[in-house]
Amino acid sequence: MSDRGDPVADSQGGIGLRGGAIPGLPGLAAFRGSASDPASIPIVLAAPHGGRCYPSAVLSALRAPDSVLLRLEDRLVDHLAEAVALETGAPFLVAQAPRAMIDLNRAVEDLDWDMLANAPRGAAHRGHHFRPGSGMPAHAGHRARSGLGLVPRRLPGVGELWKGRLDYAELERRIAVIHQPYHAAVEALVERVAAQWGAVLLIDLHSMPPLPTIGGAAAQFVIGDRFGTACDGELVASLFSHLAAARRLVAHNRPYAGGFVLDRHARRSSGIHAVQIEIDRTAYLDSAMAERGPGFDSVVALLVAMVRQLADDVAALGRDRLRWRAAAE
Questions:
Q1: Which one, 26, 144, 172, 293, has least CB within 10 Å?
Q2: pLDDT tens digits, residue range 202-259?
Q3: CA quadruple 47, 53, 55, 61: dihedral sign
Q4: What does DSSP assign to residue 177?
Q5: Is the CB of residue 295 less than 8 Å from the CB of residue 303?
């Protein structure tokens, strides 16, 4: 299976994409998606936390009740992404491997070293050396320290998620068959669309629990652009304008500025822009935060209109880039 995703037949007339593997679930791809060739719009949708295919070994290793896994998932955000892609023609990729196994929005270095078993002393991981006995790798970030690193370890109010440590060989396997293929597929897709249109916008879709109410209301959407480094300001302004016109409260970079997906794939100098969009789960799920709720269709309609507007904006940026490229040649 190709690291960049295998093309397969697609019922909507596009190119179906699937790639990677989920250890313990033979034949099931780590991610799936679809894209037309050529791309009909310069937008790519992704949902790295939408996976909910759990191998029995993962469930049996869980110390907490299975219901806790709902808190790790961006529940049904893959349904949102696919519905929007179907209406707009945007290419999309959604994870099927669950975040509980490996977090696709984390760097491989963002790992709690103390949760591993049987790791070689002085192990080097992708060129980054860990400090044996320190409880943390040399390049670990604050997310690993909080319990939500490359492999989630604990949740507030729940504590430790797993009965025992994760075997180092199993971690290596998950990186090789889930994490690396997913990001290779995203990279290939955004580069192809950017080459065609001159620019592309990667929309990394996530969902969040309701934010604390401050001053009478809480934001239902959070737009993250890594504090301006991942996306052109005009595109971010267009996002805010669209959500404001729909009377949806929106925040910028706080508390979610974007994660590894944006760091890994955004390259503004090459015309590759990326934003992370967090959506309040109460806006589209039921009261149990488990199934589609009464607001699902309205959120889809809002995102469809937003993607269509952004497609025009990104196309304009791309035309400018292509003109400058032609003039330089």
A1: 26
A2: 999 999 999 998 777 899 999 999 999 999 999 999 999 999 999 999 999 999 999 9
A3: positive
A4: I
A5: no
